[in-house]
Amino acid sequence: MTSAVEQLAKNANWGAFSKATELKRRILFVLGALIVYRLGTYIPVPGIDPVVWNDIYSQKGGGILDMFNMFSGGALSRMTIFALNIMPYISASIIMQLATAMSPKLEALKKEGEHGRMKINQYTRYFTVFLATIQAYGLAVGLEGMQSSLGPAVIDPGLFFRASTVITIVGGTIFLMWLGEQITQRGIGNGISLIIFAGIVAELPRAIGSTLELGRQGQFNLLELLFLTAMVVGVIAFIVFIERAQRRVTVQYPRKQAGNQMQMGQQNHLPLKLNTSGVIPPIFASSLLLLPLTIVGFSGAEGGDWTAAIARYLQHGQPIYMLLYGGLIAFFAFFYTAIVFNPQENADMLRKYGGFVPGIRPGQATADYLDYVLTRLTAIGAAYLVFICLLPEFMISRYSIPFYFGGTSLLIVVTVTMDTVAQIHSHLIAHQYEGLIKKAKLRGTGRRNR
Asked: pLDDT tens across 225-272, in order?
């Protein structure tokens, strides 16, 4: 009986999907945009010898460079036009959000509604171009100083190479920023998150092959490989469980007089997610770690230089790296939650519509209560994010497995998948409601004609 009901539900969803032309158009647009993005990760930057660069990257790979390469979808290891990926835009967004929280002028601009939001987005784009230009120029200068036993990485170094590299890489970042906004507006899901998601997923087969090759070489035995697989599956299941967890705050609405009838009071719930910030804190933390260290991995400095010391301390498994990474994740978990959920605004909205939390006075007392609950939920959510992102770091340092199996990558893949599926489901439900409304109108018209 249960299987029959499930089959009917699946058939209903499939029927709704087959008729939802707008949803299919949105999904096809997302797929086309991601294909364009993946093609761009294979277009090399002009003036670089790919053979020499592959040899250099194989020697310098590891630590912060592997993290950068993960977010770029392998574009950095191939030194393509998307080498910086979308990370300058994320860094600019972080700085603008911090500036908005601290600047009264930007805060007032944010409260102006759609016009203010468009202005802040425009400032973020300008700042993205500025950051991308600095990073691209540093990358070009670092590439000119690189060479291996096969020769120099740059075929013809000089001013022309630096200018062309900056223009190419900055143009690639701006294109990805525009592509992400188009996916958000005309597709399904968050465009920036989907671009990062596509880069990680595209490199997973290679990461799995590298892990199996390490096992074949004897770096870990079959039992350790099975344990690693079980750990990955367990982390995914734990992420799904926590991301779906929420605290439901009971909200009571009083009875209302409607004509001669008295409507009964309604009881509803205000859902507060355990991890309100989602996947944003690990992405922001990674971006801030990458921003000042873009050139450190390319500096070619000797062991006694300060840049080499920074690169050494920020390797995976190092205490300083884990401390900085965990601290930034916890900070952005609280910071982003404070941005997306304002207890005072929600308390005012409840009082406006006559709602109240049982046992709590409306107004400031309700705002304090919501802030009390949300702070404790965010503390648990931040601890969960730090645990998920740092636990695999110990495994990476112990077994030297590819960085794609780290907690950050798994968290991004699982969370983005869940959000995208939820949005697809919402579109299907909305389409079913539209169909029911149309049928009701047709039936009403037919009865009037009779």
From this structure: 787 778 888 888 888 898 888 888 888 877 665 555 555 557 788 888
On the question of pLDDT at 14 being above 70, the answer is no
What is the distance between the alpha carbons of residues 249 and 328, in angstroms, rounded to a whole number?
29
Out of 123-127, 142-146, 426-430, pick the least confident: 426-430
192 and 124 in contact (C-beta within 8 Å)?
no
pTM score, whole prediction: 0.76
Tell me the pLDDT band of 9, cut-offs 50, 70 and 90.
Answer: very low
Owning domain of residue 360: 2-449
Residue pair 105/115 in contact (Cβ under 8 Å)? The answer is: no
DSSP bridge partners of 127: none
Measured CA angle at 294 (ends 118, 417), to 5 deg: 55
Q: How many domains does the chain have?
A: 1
Residue 416 in contact with residue 197, Cβ under 8 Å? yes
- Buried b / exposed e across 6-34, counting CB within 10 Å, b at 16+? eeeeeeeeeebeeebeebeebbebbeebb
Q: Are 100 and 110 in contact (CB under 8 A)?
A: yes
Name 246's bridge partners: 273
Question: DSSP labels for 321-364?
Answer: HHHHHHHHHHHHHHHHHHHH--HHHHHHHHHHTT-B-TTS-TTH
Q: Which residues contact 245 (CB under 8 A, 6 or more apart)?
A: 273, 274, 275
Residues forming a β-bridge with 268: 251
Give DSSP secondary structure letters for 105-135: HHHHHHTTTHHHHHHHHHHHHHHHHHHHHHH
Token pair in block for residue 45: 């930057």
CB atoms within 10 A of CB 334: 18
| Tokens read off for 305 | 């230089």
Could you report how far apart the first and last alpha carbons of the chain are, in Å? 41
Q: What is the Cα–Cα distance from 145 to 131, expressed in whole angstroms? A: 22
Q: CATH number for the domain including 255?
A: 1.10.3370.10
Helices (H), 41-86: 50-60, 64-71, 75-78
Return the closest-CA partner of residue 287 out of 104, 143, 98.
98
Q: What is the pLDDT of residues 346-370, one digit of tens each?
A: 888 888 877 888 888 888 888 888 8
Task: Kindly tell me the burial class for residue 160, based on how many C-beta atoms sit within 10 Å of its own C-beta (0-12, 13-18, 19 or more).
Answer: exposed
Query: What is the DSSP annotation of 364-376?
Result: HHHHHHHHHHHHH
Residues pairing with 258 in the sheet? 261
Q: Which two tokens stand for residue 271?
A: 């859902």
